Amino acid sequence: MVGQALKGASLIPLDRLEINNIHSFGGCVVLEDAAHRYSLPALLAPLSQRNGALVQALIFGGLLFPPSVAPFYVESRPVRLATFCGLDPDQERFELPDLTAALRELDQSWPLLRSGLIHPPHAEVRAIIFFKTSRSPDHLETGALGMDADGIPVPLAPEEAGAADPSLNGLARQVAQVAHVALHSKTGPPLLVLDEETAKRIRVEAMEKQPYLIELSPESLSALLKQLNQAQLLHSLRAGGPVEVRHHGERYILKPTKDPRVAESQESTMRMGSLKELKELTEPAPPPSLAADPAGTIPAAGFQAVRTNVPAERLPAAAAMLWATRAQSARAAFSPVRIVAASSPMGDGVILWRNHQNLQFLTHRLRCHLQAEWHARGETRPVEEVIRELHEVHRATLTVDGVVVRRLATRPSKAVATLLARLDLWELFESPDIQTRG
């Protein structure tokens, strides 16, 4: 360096420096760390090494990418997802036949994987959530999902879940089997969290000693609001937090939602576009207005409401709304996905992995783990939204004459830096192992 300086040459060979291999980085780091902390690779160990890595990539993809009809490998390559799943990023194409084979082996190994997730059997099942799922665009089924006290999904044994049977007798039999098994646990019968349609079909009110929580439909909520004292209700809602209402002997709990779209339980639709173009789909909507409409009635839009037979001392209002929110998140995770693009050569493949129930379960389980962690630190936004914000951190390699001399990360924006501090993730991004990956 001294010799170069005495010759008048630049100490830094700018003409020989190159920045290349730029790719998204942040979301993958967070997901890889969470996957190892919650033993996802060990859970997938019964699968072949390659199929296990492909399933892990699909799980990460379900949290990284908004619903899209882009082929999976097109979405994955810019973020170097393969690197974080033990796959060769330069060779991996995520071909449809390979993904199909991986999901087929996941199904075949599911009984073994399921047994590894139940510790001990039935003891942690605190709530049962019913949802609609689909293995094809035109065939809906009713499934059931167990949850422990922290909202982490717990798989139900085959005798609990029963065969998928959307008929009244099938659903009623499914609930009876679940409740019967849980009666032998220390926690007692699980809380059934249902939408109104399912509750009516299984006649849940007729089940003796069965605690339940029913989410009101927009129509039922509108009808309820019209029968309540508007001035008193408006005053209670503006005070913040959930509001309890007794009406015709029933216990109702109402709460304004920060984002009205959280209350939607319709089918998801896949849209075509890049991650940047689809970013606007995740922008938070403005908070709902608490003002009454011209007719003097508080509008139902933007509110969450439930009805329950569990007394307040056993299920406080805040806990009831937490279970309702968990149920909405679970239903969204298992919501059937349809393609709305005019044409897509990979459409069938996208539907295959987006609607695959065992894959959806594992993806939602990882989502719930992160949600529980981040909620404890004050982060209440959806996990996908947080991960995509973290994914704005990019990484690149600095080379001199083609030789890598340093790996670089983009300086995070103030918002991302604040998020990293709040979630205590700075140490994760500074890990030597992470810095040398990919």
Outline of the structure:
This protein is an alpha+beta fold. The chain contains 19 helices and 13 strands.
Topology diagram in text:
Elements: H1 2-6, E1 17-24, H2 26-37, H3 40-43, H4 49-64, H5 72-76, H6 96-117, E2 127-136, E3 139-147, E4 153-154, H7 158-161, H8 168-182, E5 191-195, H9 196-202, E6 212-215, H10 218-226, H11 230-238, E7 243-247, E8 250-256, E9 268-270, H12 275-278, E10 303-308, H13 317-333, E11 337-339, H14 347-354, H15 357-376, H16 383-390, E12 394-400, E13 403-409, H17 414-422, H18 426-429, H19 432-435
Parallel strand pairs: 2-5, 5-6, 9-11
Antiparallel strand pairs: 1-12, 2-3, 3-4, 6-10, 7-8, 8-10, 12-13
Helix pairs in contact: 2-16, 4-6, 4-15
What do these coordinates show?
This protein is an alpha+beta fold and about 450 residues long. The chain folds into 2 domains: about 10-105 and about 390-435, no CATH class; about 120-355, no CATH class. Helices cover about 40% and strands about 15% of the residues. An 8-stranded mixed β-sheet has the order 4-3-2-5-6-10-8-7, with helices on both faces. Helix 2 packs across helix 16 and helix 4 (about 50-65) crosses helix 6. It is globular and about 90 Å long.
